[in-house]
Amino acid sequence: MKIFKKFPDTITIILCISLLFIVLTWLIPAGEFDKEIIDGKEVIIANSYKSIDSQPQGLGAFLTAPIKGFASASFVIAFVFLVGGAFSILNRTGAINAGLFSIIKISRNNPQYKNFIVPGITALFSLAGATFGMSEEILVFILITIPLSKALGYDAIVGAAIPIIGTGVGFAGAFTNPFTIGIAQGIAQVPIFSGMEYRLVVWFILTTIACIAISRYAKRIDKNPEKSLLYGTAAHQIQKENNHEIPDLTARRRIILLTLLGAIIILIYGVNKYSWYINEIAGLFIALGIIAAIIYRMKVSTTISAFVEGAKEMMTAALVIGLAKGLLVIAQDGKIIDTLLNSVAVLAEGTPKFVSAELMLLFQSSLNFFIPSGSGQAALTMPIIAPLSDLLGISRQVSVLTFQIGDGLTNMIVPTSGVTMGALSIAKIPFNVWLKWAFPIVLILCLTGMILILPPLFLFEW
Fold first, then answer.
1. Do residues 129 and 141 make contact, with C-beta atoms less than 8 angstroms apart?
2. In the structure, what pLDDT confidence band is assigned to residue 1 with cuts at 50, 70 and 90?
3. 210-269: per-residue pLDDT in tens?
4. What values do phi and psi take at 99, rounded to 5?
5. What is the pLDDT of residues 56-95, one digit of tens each?
6. How far, in whole angstroms, is CA 259 from its chain's centroid?
7. CA torsion, points 264, 174, 204, 135, in degrees to nearest 10?
8. Overall pTM surpassing 0.85 (yes/no)
C-alpha cells in the first residue's frame, strides 16, 4: 500500500486523467447515436449508432477544457462559494460547536447512545439519496458532519463518509429518486417508481453495510486514534489545531440552531414539493446566514468578513469541481461516449441473461468515470439498455436496477465526480487516503449489488 503514500494531490490527479482522456480520443473510434428530446431530456434513439470522423483532442483541449468545465459547473461552483460563506457566518456565532458539544455530553453521560449517532445519521443521508435524490446538497451538510465527527473523537474520514457513502448507497438503492429512478423508468417505459418493494430490500441491505463499515472504522479510531488513516498527516494536524474551546449553548445559539433545523426542513420540503435546486438552496442558506447574524447581533463588518473568509475556504473545492467537469468536456468533444455505449450493447448480445445483467451493471459502474451525473447517465444509457434487455430476456425493471446500482456506488470514488471531490476538498482529505479507505467498502457494496440483481432473474418475476 506504499503507493498511496506517494499519491499526488487531487488537482494533479485530475490533470493527469485529462491527459488520459485525450489519449483515449485518439484510440477509441468516434461515433454517435441520433438523439431526440423527451420531456426536456435528450435521449438516444436505439439502433441509431453510426461511426463518424474521428475527433481526437490535443493540447488545445487540455488547455481549454478547464474553462469549459468551469462554465458548465458554474452553478455548482457559485453554490459552493455562497453556501461556504453563509456557513462561515453560522460558525462565527459558535452555535454549531455549542450544539455539537451538547450532543457529545449526552453521549459521554450515556455511552450507549454514541454508537447510534454515526449509523443513524448515515441512514438519514441514505434515505435522502433514495427518496429525493440528495447530491450536491451534501456540500452543505459536510460542513456539519465534519465538526460532529471530530467532536465525537473520530476523524474527518468519518465526517466525510457519512454524507458521501450515505447518499451513495441511497442512490444505489433508490426507490423514489426522481433524478435516477424516475428518469430511468420513464425512458424504459415501466410505471414510475414501480417495483418499490424489492428496491426497499436493496436499499436496506446496502445501507446496513455502509453503516456497519463506517461505524467499525469509527470505533477502531475511537479506541486508538493512531489507527486513523489521517494520523500524522497535514489533515490530522489541522484537526488538532482546530480543537478550540467549545462555547456555551446560550439562548441565542439555541434559537440559531432551531433556525438551522427549520432551514433543513424547508430544504427537504422545497426539493420534494417544488423541485428546488441550486438557486433556491443557495438562497435559503444565504437567508440563514443573514438571520443568524441578526439573532446573534453580529456587526455588519464582522458578518461580511466571516462570509468572505468562508468563501475563501471553498476555493480548492471550487477548483476541483470545475476541473473534474472539464474531464467530461474532453470525452464529449472527442465523441467517444456513444462508442462505449454501443460497445457494451454489442458485447452483451448472445450471453446468458445473468451474465448480461452483470455486464450491464459493470458497464454502468465504469461509465461513471465519464458521466458521474445520475440523470445524465440515465438519459444516455437507458434508451440502449432497455430495448437490449428485451432481446436478452431480462425484464426492464432489472435493467433499471443495474443502472441505479452501477450509478450510485462507484460515484463515491471516481475522481471525475465533482461532488465527491469537492466534499473531500472541503474535508481536507487527500484523494489517495480516501481511495485507500473507501475502495474496499465500495468493492463489497458492488459485489453485494451483483448478488442483489440475481433474485429478480431467477426467484421471482419482476
1. no
2. very low
3. 999 999 999 999 889 889 998 876 655 555 545 545 678 889 999 999 998 898 888 878
4. -65, -40
5. 999 899 999 999 989 988 887 888 889 889 988 988 998 8
6. 26
7. -40
8. no
Domain boundaries, the chain: 2-22+56-72+95-246+314-458
CA distances in angstroms from 235 to 228, 380, 428, 429, listed in the order given: 11, 39, 6, 7
pLDDT (0 to 100) of residue 296: 94
Please state the three-class secondary structure of the chain as a single string: CHHHHCCCCHHHHHHHHHHHHHHHHHHCCCEECCEEEECCEEEECCCCCEECCCCCCCHHHHHHHHHHHHHHCHHHHHHHHHHHHHHHHHHHCCHHHHHHHHHHHHHHHCHHHHHHHHHHHHHHHHHHHHHCCCCCCHHHHHHHHHHHHHHCCCCHHHHHHHHHHHHHHHHHCCCCCHHHHHHHHHHHCCCCCCCHHHHHHHHHHHHHHHHHHHHHHHHHHHHCHHHCCCCCCHHHHHHHHCCCCCCCCCHHHHHHHHHHHHHHHHHHHHHHHHCCCHHHHHHHHHHHHHHHHHHHCCCHHHHHHHHHHHHHHCHHHHHHHHHHHHHHHHHHHCCCHHHHHHHHHHHHCCCCHHHHHHHHHHHHHHHCCCCCCHHHHHHHHHHHHHHHHHHHCCCHHHHHHHHHHHHHHHCCCCCCCHHHHHHHHHHCCCHHHHHHHHHHHHHHHHHHHHHHCCHHHHCCCC
CA neighbor of 307 nearest in space, from 280, 320, 288: 288
Whether the Cβ atoms of residue 94 and residue 253 lie closer than 8 Å to each other: yes
Q: Which residue has the higher pLDDT, 173 or 282?
A: 173
Cell numbers that stand for 234 in this block: 497535514
CA 185, CA 194: separation in Å to the nearest integer? 8
Q: What is the dihedral of CA 60, 62, 64, 66, to 10 degrees?
A: 180
Q: Which residue has the cell 465527491?
A: 420
* Nine cell digits for residue 318: 471550487
Which residue in this structure is represented by grid cell 430511468?
184
Which of these, 439, 416, 329, lies nearest to 14 by C-alpha position? 416
What is the pLDDT at residue 245? 56
